From TrEMBL:
Keywords: Hydrolase, Signal. Residues 1-25 form the signal peptide. One of its GO terms (molecular function) is hydrolase activity. InterPro entries: GDSL_Est/Lipase (IPR051058), SGNH_hydro_sf (IPR036514). It comes from Oryza punctata (Red rice). This is GDSL esterase/lipase.
Amino acid sequence: MAGQMLPVIALVAVAVFAMAAAAAAKVPAMYVFGDSTADVGNNNYLAGAAVPRANFPHNGIDFPTSRPTGRFSNGYNGVDFLGTYRFAARLSCAVLVGGKGDGCEATTPQAS
């Protein structure tokens, strides 16, 4: 009987230590895969005069600075609130895929 309990006790011990380690770990980033409620868009850095821009006064009026942010939103979206309250830090900027001039690194290589 004692020989059969040893694997169970070992499994429980490993599970307890794994949960303790996971609870103490800090999450350095938040990845969001979603629709238009999670990503309100930013196209200020796309070339062309026919591309609609989001840098008008009403876009960003509910942000603390009340200035246009380049996002098609007048304030924070649900993901911004989640990041603010869950991680206790304001999201600094969005990582744009292939973006330029926004202060964030581009995450995809440039097509040549």
